[in-house]
Fold:
Amino acid sequence: MENRQPKMKGEEVMDIIAHLQAIRGDMEQAIEQAESLADLRQIRINYLGKKGPITEALRSMKDLTPEERPKVGQFANELKNKITARIEEKEAAYEKEALNRELQAEAIDVTLPGNIEKMGYRHVLSQVITEIEDLFLAMGYQIHSGPEIESDYYNFQRMNIPENHPARDMQDSFYIDHEHLLRTHTSPVEARAMDQHDFSKGPLKMISPGKVYRRDDDDATHSHQFTQIEGLAVGKNIGMSDLKGTLELFARKMFGEEREIRLRPSYFPFTEPSAEIDISCFNCGGEGCRICKYSGWIEILGGGMTHPNVLAMDGLDPNEYQAFAFGLGPDRVAMLKYGIDDIRHFYQNDLRFNHQFKERG
Structure:
């Protein structure tokens, strides 16, 4: 049997250090050959983990003397730090390379022309309604709204149209039940506004834009659904001249400063006296043309002095308070203003029609 000579003092230390140096060479070669961050993470686990060769080599330190252990421990720690730094250096290089690839892929050529985004714009009918609202707001009016499903009481009775009144035949209605219907005009909003207004603090001046509904056959000039704006001014010492001046201003702002208006006697159950209001033809200046049917005038809206019964139903004394009211159709205003010959264009959503008015939005 071969006799093994015991190692001399210090030889065990040199063996461990030589083994660690060999491990270092293998690790540096593995790091150099790593092709990705995943490879580097696996090297860190394989060599520096709890089951790695460095940890295994350090376990043999138990056989060393207390004087020899610090030498091996110091060398092992320096080796770990150098290898860790080398791994982190190469990881940083890979991360930088990946970031550069990502930036290059997402690069924007600022010299390229931009994409033209299609912008939305208001419908021509909405444009006209807004223009009318702005006009009356500038005159000190408020804008009120109300429900489209209305009670018979507010839609008819408060407008001086009791049950079985012949005026109900003027507005063929969509009834939901005996007491409720789709409103046939926006006048109910006026009654609700009068209920809420404190007349001790001043007059009420308001307009009420919104959709209204009537049983009608749709054609170029009629629709079962259309828009309406009604106006009301309630206070003391209000007369027909105030209505005329207000509507004259409206006509000139909407159709040109040269416009004139005329009032023709008419009948509405909620106004007395009542009038149809015409404007001088903006196309021919009053000389007569196809648009005005060669009369020189175009009917535009209706109005009059609010009937005393309407005021009394709100608890106002007709001898102390007076009011005027008017109603106009933005659909008709838009048709006249822009030469639109068919009311159905407003509701058919034909983009060829809508695009004609996008610059006005």
